[in-house]
Automatic annotation (TrEMBL):
<protein>
    <submittedName>
        <fullName>Four helix bundle protein</fullName>
    </submittedName>
</protein>
<dbReference type="Pfam" id="PF05635">
    <property type="entry name" value="23S_rRNA_IVP"/>
</dbReference>
<dbReference type="InterPro" id="IPR036583">
    <property type="entry name" value="23S_rRNA_IVS_sf"/>
</dbReference>
<dbReference type="InterPro" id="IPR012657">
    <property type="entry name" value="23S_rRNA-intervening_sequence"/>
</dbReference>
Length: 120
């Protein structure tokens, strides 16, 4: 088991979540239960799955949950691109978020690869 509060990957995913929630504050009200809701589920899923995996006893289980977090990061990336194309958020808001998503994705990938070496 890992102490999630000490995991940089978890802390960065929490920071991403806060930034995404702030960015969504300006979205149209009619999107609260549409795309906005999907985005919130995806961004929360990243840190939640990292936490759930960290709390498991076996590295193989952690690897599994990191894969889910990794997939959620791509889902989030896609949804934010859609928001920009639909003019729900600006490029000035989206670009920093995309950069943070890229960083979190890299961190998850490296973490997964390190765990993979242990379980193979």
């Amino acid at each position: 088991m890992h102490n999630i509060k000490k995991l940089k990957i978890w802390n960065e995913s929490i920071n991403l979540c806060v930034d995404v929630y702030k960015a969504l504050a300006s979205m149209p009200n009619d999107e609260k239960y549409g795309l906005s809701s999907q985005i919130k589920r995806a961004v929360v899923s990243i840190s939640s799955n990292i936490a759930e995996g960290a709390g498991r006893e076996r590295e193989k289980e952690f690897y599994y949950f990191l894969n889910i977090a990794y997939g959620s990061s791509y889902e989030l990336q896609t949804q934010l691109i859609l928001c920009e194309k639909l003019n729900f958020i600006s490029d000035e808001i989206n670009q920093p978020l995309q950069n943070k998503i890229d960083e979190v994705q890299k961190m998850i990938y490296v973490f997964k690869e390190n765990i993979k070496k242990k379980i193979i």
